[in-house]
Amino acid sequence: MSTERISISLPREMVQLLDALAKRMALTRSGAVQKLLEKKRQEDLEALMAAGYQEMAAENRHEAEKAVAAQAEVALHGM
User: Fold this and answer.
1) C-alpha–C-alpha distance, residues 37 and 21, integer Å
2) 7-42 pLDDT, tens per residue?
3) How far, in Å, CA of 36 to CA of 22, rounded?
4) Distance separating alpha carbons of residues 35 and 21, to the nearest angstrom
5) Which one of 14, 51, 62, 77 is least enclosed by Cβ atoms within 10 Å?
């Protein structure tokens, strides 16, 4: 992956937090920011997937209910 140099401005408190995180993670500031952004991207992807799975589950439940109703109709009244 190619890298690009950027410059950002942060409040002193955020710089101190970044430095503490970088030290704890044994990374540079840049490395810590990269890891945090990767984690955020992964969390966003997982949330999107979870929402998709919930939507699919609702659709599957609806289709199953229709199938059960159709089977019950056939069982009760014959073909």
Assistant:
1) 13
2) 999 999 999 999 999 999 999 999 999 999 999 999
3) 10
4) 10
5) 77
Amino acid sitting at position 4: E
DSSP the chain: -----------HHHHHHHHHHHHHHT--HHHHHHHHHHHHHHHHHHHHHHHHHHHHHHHHHHHHHHHHHHHHHHHHH--
pTM of this structure: 0.66
